[in-house]
Write a structure and sequence with these properties.
- The protein is of the alpha/beta class.
- Helices cover 36% and strands 15% of the residues.
- A hairpin with a 2-residue loop joins strand 1 and strand 2.
- The N and C termini lie far apart (44 Å).
Length: 384
C-alpha cells in the first residue's frame, strides 16, 4: 500500500485553527492526523510539504521506518516544528493501517488495557465562589479529578505573579475543604512562575491541598525543576510542550515529576508516545495526556490511553464547566469521541474511529492568531 498524496489543511474550525493532515494511498484507504503547534501552523505546513516530497511512494504500513526517516534524514533534526509535522503524519499512518487491517488503532499499540478513559476537567471561573460552584457541578456530573483556575487570567495584557499566587492558594484550600479528600485537585500555572514564586505559592497551602501542580515554571532547565522539587511535596505534572523522548529524559531518569502531560500531536505521534510511556512505566511515572485540540487529537490520545498500563487521566475541554469554549463541531467531524459523563469510551471501529467532512474543511480558511503577549507592570515581557 503506497502513499500517493499528503494534504495539509490549516483551517479555522470554531474557536481556533486546526492543522489537519490527510494521507491517501493507492488502494483508496486514507488516514487523518493532527498537528499540535497551535499559533504556528504555517510553519508546520512548510515542514509537511518538505516531507511530502519523499513520502509519496513509501509503503504506508512501515510506520516505524517512516518515522525514523523523517527524523534522521536531515542535519537539523527534531525541534517543535518538525516534530509537530511528524506527529500529524504518524497519526494519519496509524489511521490508515487500522482501517486497512480492519482493527482499531489501540490493537496496533498492543491492545486495550481499559474499556473507558477517565478524564479530568477544568474550571474556568477566577478563584472564588463561582470556581467552587463549578467544581461542585463537575463532581455532580461524574468527575473525580479536576484542575482549578489560577488567578490572573482576567487581564489578557498584564500578569504579575505575586499579585495572584496568594489568592489562588487561598481558594485552592477552600476547594479542598468544600470538596473533601476523595476529589483529585490540581492547578495549571502555564509556566508563568519563577522557582521562588512557585515555591511561595506551594508553601501558602497545607500539605495535601493539591494532588498535582502543572507547569509551574518553564521546562528548558531541568535543574530548576529539581530545585523546586526540594521546596514542595506537591507532585508535578509537566511535559505538554516536550517535542521528543529526549526532552523527557532528564525528568524521567532523575525523578523530577510524577505525571507526564504528553501531547501525541507534538511529541512525535503515537510512535514516540508509546516509547515515552514504556520508559515512564519503568520509573513509575503516570501518563496524563495533554488534549487541547480537536477530535483527531482526542481519538488518537484515547487509543494511546487505552493501550498503556501507566495511565491516570486524559484532559478534556468538553465539560460543563467550560461552556465558554463551546462549539459544536459535529458538522466537521460527524463521527468522533463523545464523553459519557467523565469518561471517553474506547472505540473499536477500524483506525482512529473519526470521520471528517473534508468538503466542509476545504471551504474553511486560515486565520492568523497570536497568543497573548503578556507584560509585567514595569513593561517587561513575561510568559504566557
Amino acid at each position: 500500500m503506497k502513499i500517493t498524496a499528503v494534504h495539509a489543511f490549516p483551517v479555522w474550525v470554531g474557536i481556533r485553527n486546526q492543522l489537519l493532515v490527510k494521507i491517501e494511498t493507492d488502494e483508496g484507504v486514507f488516514g487523518w492526523g493532527e498537528s499540535g503547534l497551535s499559533g504556528r501552523e504555517k510553519a508546520v505546513v512548510g515542514a509537511i510539504e518538505h516531507y511530502r516530497e519523499f513520502l509519496i511512494g513509501k509503503d504506508a504500513f512501515k510506520i516505524g521506518a517512516i518515522w525514523q526517516e523523517m527524523y534522521r534524514s536531515q542535519y537539523f533534526e527534531g525541534g517543535r516544528v518538525l516534530q509537530a509535522a511528524i506527529s500529524a503524519i504518524d497519526i494519519a499512518l496509524y489511521d490508515i493501517k487500522g482501517k486497512a487491517l480492519g482493527v482499531p488503532v489501540h490493537e496496533l499499540l498492543g491492545g486495550k488495557q481499559r474499556d473507558r478513559i477517565p478524564t479530568f476537567a477544568t474550571t474556568h471561573a477566577a478563584p472564588g465562589p463561582e470556581m467552587i460552584e463549578q467544581a461542585r457541578q463537575l463532581v455532580a456530573a461524574g468527575w473525580t479529578a479536576m484542575r482549578l483556575s489560577p488567578s490572573g487570567h482576567e487581564n489578557p495584557q498584564t500578569y504579575e505573579p505575586r499579585e495572584h499566587i496568594g489568592e489562588s492558594a487561598k481558594w485552592c484550600v477552600k476547594a479542598r475543604e468544600e470538596l473533601g479528600d476523595a476529589v483529585v485537585l490540581g492547578i495549571d500555572y502555564h509556566h508563568r512562575l519563577s522557582v521562588a514564586e512557585a515555591a511561595s505559592f506551594c508553601q501558602k497551602m497545607p500539605s495535601g491541598t493539591l494532588d498535582f501542580l502543572e507547569e509551574p515554571i518553564r521546562d528548558e532547565t531541568p535543574e530548576a525543576y529539581e530545585s523546586l522539587r526540594t521546596l514542595t511535596d506537591i507532585p508535578f505534572a509537566i511535559g505538554e510542550e516536550f517535542a521528543s523522548k529526549w526532552q523527557f529524559l532528564p525528568y524521567i531518569e532523575r525523578g523530577i515529576h510524577q505525571f507526564n502531560r504528553i501531547d501525541v500531536c507534538n511529541v512525535g505521534g503515537l510512535t514516540e508516545s508509546m516509547k515515552v510511556a514504556g520508559w515512564s512505566e519503568a520509573h513509575y511515572v503516570d501518563m496524563m495526556p495533554h488534549n487541547p485540540l480537536g477530535p483527531i487529537c482526542t481519538a488518537a490520545t484515547v487509543h494511546f490511553a487505552a493501550a498503556v498500563a501507566n495511565f491516570s487521566w486524559l484532559e478534556t475541554r468538553a465539560s460543563p464547566a467550560e461552556t465558554h469554549l463551546g462549539f459544536d463541531n459535529s458538522e466537521f467531524f460527524p463521527v468522533q469521541p463523545r464523553l459519557e459523563r467523565a469518561h471517553y469510551p474506547v472505540s473499536d471501529a477500524p483506525g482512529l474511529g473519526v470521520e471528517v467532512n473534508e468538503a466542509l474543511v476545504r471551504q474553511q480558511s486560515f486565520k492568523f492568531w497570536e497568543a497573548p503577549h503578556l507584560k509585567r507592570r514595569d513593561g517587561s515581557v513575561t510568559n504566557w
